[in-house]
Design a protein that fits this description.
Blueprint lengths: L1 H60 L12 H8 L2 E4 L9 H11 L3 E6 L8 H18 L4 E5 L15 H6 L36 H16 L4 E6 H4 L7 H17 L6 E5 L6 E2 L2 E2 L3 E5 L3 E2 L7 E2 L15 E2 L5 E2 L4 E4 L26 H6 L3 H18 L3 E10 L8 E3 L14 H13 L1
Parallel strand pairs: 1-2, 1-14, 2-3, 3-4, 4-5, 5-8, 8-13, 13-14
Antiparallel strand pairs: 6-7, 9-10, 11-12, 14-15
Helix pairs in contact: 6-8
Length: 444
């Protein structure tokens, strides 16, 4: 019995030793596993950081830098122009804003043209400023690099009589401060030129102090809302009494001075439609960017098709003037944007050689012609236009169509590039075409 007890005790001791041994082995295995996992996580983290660094280097090598302060280099400016898109009324149409912002993030847009597109309707200005500021903040929360553009167009209506002129506008222009509203009649050409040019709206004369007060008031209000780009419309309609450009130079200088002290990044990017090639005064360019419609040429022998061509009507290709830019660098030709413009259609929509204007495309304005095409042809045509512009004139940049008013189309009043969805039922599904064009450009 004693012998048996000793045997049992020895067995127990051996079993205990084996158990301890197994526990030690398992502990070592667990520690080794944790060390391997930690090393893997660390290596993955380092690899991810290196990948991000390499990606950042690649983007810099490809010029995709969007940083500027007080002035903008040509490279950064062109990076923005290469990612430009028109989304008319982005900051005033609250019903489509969320899906438009989704699209902006999906395609990687950086310059949003006509985000504020106030055509007359001045009685709504003060209310709109608040909406624009709120929605601009949401855009910049999503991407702080995005430049939003507002428009100061070649139109003024009697509704401006309802808007009080702030003291600071008088002060900036060196005029006596008065407690009064804007005066519509004091903005018009004294000889009646272009009065009621737009029905109830007239073309303002930039040489008149009241017009400059209005332009300054609008620009400052947009800058305060977070806007960093201003499109000045058809400037050549407004300078018939400003042949030496002294008045445009004055108001643009005042606007830029305000932006230098109050804009998000110390400057505002100014552009306008310039059929004459641009405004240059004493060798200095008055605008940061030139802009113009694409001037699409219909091909009557091919139903509904159209092309781009140097010299077609007043197209800007190869004609953008150069000089010293507001940011201080010189160029032979200022970079410019070309867009699918809206200006109304003919009385023969869908017909070739519609009478009344050489700039109609199959009887439509440009965006309406484009919106009326099949999806495969729209895809083809955007690729064609993007490549043709870059090959024909490297100074030109295609501003993609994202959202814009149409005319003479019974099936739609507005073109949306957005993918169709419950929130955007009328989307035309062109956003991924735009995204792919830009992504392919990165690889070149």
């Amino acid at each position: 019995m004693i012998y048996k007890a000793k045997i049992m005790k020895r067995v127990k001791n051996n079993l205990l030793k084996k158990s301890v041994y197994k526990i030690v082995l398992r502990a070592k295995w667990l520690i080794l596993t944790l060390m391997m996992v930690s090393c893997t996580i660390y290596a993955t983290t380092i690899r991810a950081k290196l990948t991000r660094a390499r990606t950042s280097d690649i983007l810099k090598e490809k010029g995709r830098d969007y940083k500027f302060k007080n002035k903008i280099s040509r490279k950064v400016l062109e990076n923005y122009l290469d990612r430009s898109i028109t989304i008319q009324n982005l900051l005033t149409d609250t019903t489509t804003f969320d899906d438009n912002l989704r699209m902006i993030k999906n395609i990687g847009a950086k310059f949003i043209g006509r985000a504020v597109c106030q055509w007359g309707g001045e009685a709504n200005l003060l209310k709109n400023f608040e909406t624009e500021k709120s929605l601009a903040a949401k855009v910049h929360q999503a991407d702080a690099d995005i430049v939003l553009q507002a428009c100061i167009f070649e139109i003024v209506t009697e509704q401006v009589n309802q808007i009080a002129i702030p003291d600071w506008a008088f002060t900036a222009l060196g005029m006596p401060v008065e407690k009064r509203n804007f005066r519509y009649d004091d903005m018009l050409y004294p000889d009646g030129k272009f009065k009621n040019q737009w029905g109830r709206g007239s073309v303002p004369d930039v040489s008149r102090p009241e017009t400059k007060l209005m332009f300054y008031f609008l620009a400052v209000s947009y800058i305060d809302a977070g806007i960093e780009g201003i499109h000045f419309g058809q400037v050549e309609l407004m300078n018939k009494n400003d042949k030496d450009l002294a008045n445009y130079a004055q108001i643009l200088t005042l606007i830029r001075d305000y932006a230098h002290h109050h804009a998000r990044r110390g400057m505002v990017i100014c552009d306008a439609h310039v059929p004459g090639g641009g405004f240059v005064r004493d060798g200095k360019l008055l605008l940061d960017v030139h802009a113009f419609p694409l001037r699409i040429k219909e091909t009557p022998e091919k139903e509904q098709e159209a092309i781009l061509e140097v010299g077609h009507t007043d197209a800007l290709y190869l004609r953008s003037k150069g000089g010293i830019t507001p940011s201080g660098w010189s160029c032979d030709h200022l970079p410019y944007l070309v867009e699918l413009d809206n200006y109304g259609g003919s009385q023969q929509p869908g017909k070739a050689n519609a009478p009344g204007s050489a700039i109609w495309v199959w009887g439509y304005d440009e965006i309406s012609w484009f919106a009326n095409q099949s999806k495969p042809y729209r895809t083809y045509w955007l690729n064609y236009a993007y490549d043709w512009i870059h090959k024909t004139d490297p100074n030109g940049h295609l501003e993609m169509p994202g959202g814009r008013q149409t005319s003479k189309l019974p099936q739609m009043r507005w073109y949306y590039a957005n993918d169709p969805s419950e929130t955007m039922p009328h989307g035309m599904g062109d956003e991924n075409t735009i995204r792919t064009i830009w992504a392919n450009a990165e690889k070149k």
